[in-house]
């Protein structure tokens, strides 16, 4: 029986016209778009004006997160706690945040996400900030999904692709007494694919995931160390059991420092996540 399953899995992936090939085509498209975007930006020379007014700096960061999920009937409660830092040094900064979100599933192909975020950041040695953000989003999923395993939603097919649209109202309170608020739009294309099982809902599943996201300021921007512009994530995860999963993601991001001087930054992050379902 195990051998037959292996043969079926091989035919699933290798048959040119089979379901595996059809499921993988969107993945190839996403990867091609990501590579094109990365190479295009890396090979684009900066003009003299950009070089003078927006010098490029680099930052390496570590993100550690714990996520708690409580699946319910046609919705899911999410709690997210995360710490970020770029390590010791004169330009060191660190932040810690907590988020709460409720995921609603009104349609098989549509998710709705209201979310609230609180974040404290040590921007510089002389300035701290506190951020309170309200965020709303909708995710369009291809293909449609179903509810299994205590209402957990997994794709009907092996490949999972979605587009997430979000609008957020960001409020900043600085240690010097100043305040600021701004609106920002976000759009993200994301994909996920299990490697050793046909379904993301099975235990001991290894999977890969990746996404590309654009941040769109709406009006004047708030002063902050990293005002995001573009973000690309690629990595994988392991579903140990229904209760516990782990993920590791490499992140490449372009931002602009709007706190002191308006210059461009390129960040490379390692994001480690512990995901807990209960």
Structure at a glance:
The chain has helices at residues 2-14, 19-42, 48-53; strands spanning 57-72, 75-85, 94-107, 110-122, 128-142, 145-148, 152-155, 160-174, 179-194, 205-218, 227-239, 244-257, 263-277. With 278 residues, it is of the alpha+beta class.
Flag low-confidence runs: 1-54
What is the global morphology?
Answer: globular
Number-wise, the strands total: 13
Specify the helix fraction band: 10-25%
Look at the helices and sheets and give the structural class. alpha+beta
- Compute the separation of the termini in Å: 33 Å
Mean pLDDT across all amino acids: 78
Which range does the strand content fall in? Answer: over 45%
Biggest β-sheet description: 11 strands, mixed, barrel
Main-sheet strand order equals 1-2-3-4-5-8-9-10-11-12-13
Report on this model:
With 278 residues, this protein is an alpha+beta fold. The protein contains three helices and 13 strands. The strands form two sheets. An eleven-stranded mixed beta barrel has the order 1-2-3-4-5-8-9-10-11-12-13. β10 (205-218) and β11 form a beta hairpin. α1 packs across α2 (19-42). The protein starts with a helix and ends with a strand.
């Amino acid at each position: 029986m195990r051998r037959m399953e292996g043969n079926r899995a091989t035919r699933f992936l290798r048959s040119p016209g089979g379901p595996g090939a059809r499921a993988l085509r969107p993945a190839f498209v996403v990867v091609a778009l990501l590579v094109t975007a990365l190479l295009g930006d890396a090979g684009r020379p900066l003009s003299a004006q950009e070089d003078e007014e927006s010098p490029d700096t680099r930052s390496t960061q570590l993100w550690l997160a714990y996520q708690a999920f409580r699946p319910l009937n046609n919705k899911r409660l999410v709690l997210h706690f995360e710490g970020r830092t770029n390590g010791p040094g004169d330009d060191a900064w660190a932040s810690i945040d907590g988020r709460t979100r409720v995921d609603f599933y009104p349609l098989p192909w549509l998710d709705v996400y209201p979310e609230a975020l609180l974040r404290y950041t040590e921007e510089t040695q002389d300035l701290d900030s506190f951020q309170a953000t309200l965020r709303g989003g909708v995710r369009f999923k291809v293909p449609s999904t179903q509810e299994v395993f205590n209402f957990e939603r997994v794709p009907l097919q092996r490949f999972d692709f979605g587009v997430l649209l979000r609008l957020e109202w960001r409020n900043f309170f600085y240690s010097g007494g100043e305040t600021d608020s701004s609106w920002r739009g976000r759009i993200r294309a994301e994909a996920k694919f299990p490697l050793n099982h046909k379904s993301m809902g099975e235990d001991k599943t290894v999977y890969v995931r990746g996404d590309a996201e654009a941040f769109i300021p709406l009006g004047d921007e708030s002063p902050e160390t990293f005002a995001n512009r573009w973000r690309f994530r690629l990595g994988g995860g392991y579903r140990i059991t229904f209760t516990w999963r782990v993920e590791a993601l490499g992140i490449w991001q372009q931002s602009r420092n709007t706190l002191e001087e308006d210059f461009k930054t390129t960040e490379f992050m390692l994001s480690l996540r512990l995901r807990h379902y209960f």
